[in-house]
Amino acid sequence: MSAAENSEQHDIDVSLVKKDFPILSTQMNGKRLVYLDSAATSQKPVQVIDAISNYYRTFNANIHRGIYKISEQATEEYTKSKDKLAEFIGAKSYQEIVYVRNTTEAINLAALSWGEANVNKGDHILITQMEHHSNIVPWQMLAQRKGAVLDYVALNGDRSALDQESLEKQLEKNPKILAVTHASNVLGTINDVKAITRKAHDRGAVVLIDGAQSCPHMPVDVRDIGCDFFALSGHKMLGPTGIGALYGKRDLLAAMEPIFGGGDMIRSVGFQTHTWNDLPWKFEAGTSNIEGGIGLSAAIDYLNGIGMKNIRRHEVEVTRYAMEKLGGIRGLKMYGPDIDHMESRGGVISFSMEGAHPHDVAQIFDDRGIAIRAGHHCAMPLVEDVLGVGAVSRISFYIYNDKNDADAAVDAVGEVKRVFKLQ
Ligand SMILES: Cc1ncc(COP(=O)(O)O)c(C=O)c1O
Question: Is a pLDDT exceeding 80 seen at residue 5?
Answer without folding.
Answer: no
